[in-house]
Amino acid sequence: MGLIDPLTEVMLCQIVDDLKPLRERFPEAKVAFNVSAKQLSNRRIFRILTNCIDAKCSSFEGLVMEVTETELIQGMEDANLQLELLIGLGIEIAIDDFGKGYSSLARLGQLPIRKLKIDSSFVWSVQDPNTVKIIQAVLALARALHMEVNVEGVETFFQRDVLLGLGCNKAKGFLFARPCLWQTSCSLPRTWKPA
């Protein structure tokens, strides 16, 4: 038996335990976690999450499960059923690293996903006009499919400004905050604003 399932169970139960106090302090906070398509397809994630919920967390609102586009689109025939079960628990599903791997646009439209995370490799080359056109096309595609878009890897004000100019108002990266312990994030002032 490998360690990935027991490790995932410990991680997810800790996230569920920490979610309620985090959302009490920051009501719009979201906590994302990554899973593989294999973990999703064998229904283990669903069982782990339903086992983790207890008096400390009455819902999964604020949880975002991320699966890479290649794994999700290539590796799962029964993805819709599994995703619908998780969505039914209140978990949001995001396609992670979009644009980095292989995608089937037809399959993308069939999945019950409402979040798309553009891979950081596009952000690192926003000075290239062709990259900007690709980002514009992805944003248009996401809007047409009623998906929320988040861009990963924003490290400079120039990158942020280009993305804002394209109409992308959700991003993450070192420009806004460095990774920190959960306790540190809970001690931030309620009025904290990123750079």
From TrEMBL:
Question: Which Gene3D superfamilies does the UniProt record give?
Answer: EAL domain (3.20.20.450)
Please give the coiled-coil regions recorded for this protein.
none
| GO molecular-function term, one example from the UniProt record | cyclic-guanylate-specific phosphodiesterase activity
What sequence ranges are listed for the domain EAL?
1-193
Entry's SUPFAM superfamilies?
Answer: EAL domain-like
Q: Identify one Pfam family in the record.
A: EAL
Sorted alphabetically, which InterPro entries does this protein's record hold? Answer: Cyclic-di-GMP_PDE-like, EAL_dom, EAL_sf
Q: Give the PANTHER family listed for this entry.
A: CYCLIC DI-GMP PHOSPHODIESTERASE PDEF, SIGNALING PROTEIN YKOW
Return the protein name: EAL domain-containing protein
Give the lineage. Answer: Eukaryota, Metazoa, Ecdysozoa, Arthropoda, Crustacea
